[in-house]
Amino acid sequence: GWRALLLPQLNRQSLYVYGSEMAVEKECLRQLQSGVFVIHPFSLMSYYIMCMMAITFLNLIGIPMEIAFLDGHSGLAWEGFNVFSDTLFLIDVALNFRMGIITEDSEEAILDIKRIRVCYLRTWFIPDVIAAFPIGYILLFADLHYNNDDNPSKTNKMMRILMFVRILSLIRLARVSRLVRFFNEVEKVSNANLEVVRLFFRILSLFMMIFLLCHWNGCIQYFVPMLEEFPTDCWVRKENLMNATVIVKYSWGVFRALSQMIALSYGSMDAPTYVEMWIVMVSMVSGCLMYTVLVANATTMIANTDPAAKEYKSKMSRLEHYMAFMKLPPELCLRINNYYQARYGGKWFQERDVIDTVSSALKEQILVVMCSRLLRNVPIFQSRDENFINSVLTKLEYEVFLEGDVIVRQHVPGDRMFFIDHGQVLLETDSDDRELCDGDYFGTCVLTKGKHLATAKALTDCQCFSLSWADLRETLESFPDVRKD
């Protein structure tokens, strides 16, 4: 029934945390057996976080606009939205006492009510209560009382009270902490194990914070002269904006804010008033902070992207120092650089390390996809047992040869055979020459431990897999039937 909405769902993130479908089912049973009303972080109820994030963002945009530009004439729709938002935030505070927690160092969700309560009270409770203060109800009741009162003295008193309450409603901007928290929670309950998703949320949160900073600054530009009842030397009167529309006023405010934040100008040819001077200084400081945060985050994102390429550049730098120290000739240095480029393609990795970190089943599948077709082209491996082929695959070694490299020499004892994955090889014998390409093989005299009958030279950069006689003999020991054949 409805309790299924509170249980963890089978998705990529739950599988990433718990490891298997069976483990997710055990987590569901663990929550059901607890017998208490707790919302699991990976349940369907957790998706309300995204709705709360959208509502919070609308609040952080609309509240400064309402206070600065609408002057109490926001309309019934906006007042209704304020009341709805306040109600939703109050409910959210209550739900957080029943919301399970995923910690960084924990492999399972915290579902114990006491631990959840203590953790919430120590972290986000006070900011949440401040942000959820029901200013919308106060404004609604005050507006209704103000509109129904005909006494002039009471009307003036109520106007002052309303102005104080509207300034007090700025406390709702504390919901920006909720926005940061929502971003962190959405990152946890989404496919956050994917680096692309994590990077997307970081960039999105960064630009949303920059937008809010510019938006608030633009609203403050107009709000402060409004508190002074628009003196004659304020920028609003100088720009003839007293009777302008809200869009025009807001556009001018944001223009002045951006001009000050990026230190181009303060937005007017005239000197600012005393109060405006402080606004200009605050804008410049906030602009410097914004620029610093932007550069720091951009640097961090760049530094954390593509670690394989960074490792490759680090290895190449060490190689350059080594070649310079050993005073290798330029031609050899160039061939070494070309080898690394052909071998790793600008990304540093070790096949053996990658293969060793996966399961035996996945390792077998990887090798079958990469090399099975190459072995099947060799007559001695055709129509052989699948287990024998898979055992041989694990013995293959990946090698790269540059154009002009001599892979094997004629009349030299052979200790291995080669399977060409990509590239071209020229076989030179006393009688003729023959070109080999993708899927061909050479060096088969290794089976008799004899000598190579031809010289093999790479015509292009060549990627091969090699099989040594010792490894093949070791594999044959485990398959006596194949060895007999």
From TrEMBL:
The chain crosses the membrane at residues 45-63, 124-146, 158-178, 199-224, 278-296. It is a multi-pass membrane protein. Residues 380-485 form the Cyclic nucleotide-binding domain. Keywords: Cell membrane, Ion channel, Ion transport, Membrane, Potassium, Potassium channel, Potassium transport, Transmembrane, Transmembrane helix, Transport. The keyword Transmembrane helix applies. One of its GO terms (biological process) is sodium ion transmembrane transport. Its main location: membrane. GO terms for cellular component: axon; dendrite; HCN channel complex. Pfam families: cNMP_binding, Ion_trans, Ion_trans_N. It is found in: Cell membrane. Coiled coil: none annotated. This is Potassium/sodium hyperpolarization-activated cyclic nucleotide-gated channel 2-like. It comes from Labrus bergylta (ballan wrasse).
